[in-house]
Amino acid sequence: MPLITIKYKVGMIHNSHELERLVTHHICPDSLPDDLADLLSQPSTLALKGTYGMREGAIPTEYDHVVIESDTGNTEFEVYNKGMSMIFKTSEPLIQAFKICLGLQKML
Predict the structure, then answer these.
(1) Where are the domains of the chain?
(2) What is the pTM of this model?
(3) Contact in structure between 63 and 105 (CB atoms under 8 Å)
(4) 88-101 in b/e burial notation, b at 16+ Cβ within 10 A?
C-alpha cells in the first residue's frame, strides 16, 4: 500500500471544542522510520476507523487524530487517552492505533 500522505493531530484537550485549536501535522511518507512505514503499510491499517480509547478517562484528555491516505484507500481514526486505554482495555486495533500514534508523535 504506497502511502500518499499522513495527517496527525495530538494534544491535551478539556472538551471537544478545543479540537479545532490542535495543529495538523502533514507527514511525508518518505520521512517515516522503517518500522513505522512497515506498520502503516499493513492492510489491517486501513481497517482502523472510528474512535478508540476512553473518552471519559481523564481531564484534560489526551487526544490523537490520524488520517492516512494511500493509493488503495484512506482511513481516519482518533484515540482518546491512549496510555490509560492500554492499561484498562486492549484489543488488536487499539494496540495497532497506539503504536501508530506513538511512532508519529516521536517524529514531531
Answers:
(1) 3-107
(2) 0.92
(3) no
(4) eeeeebbebbbebb
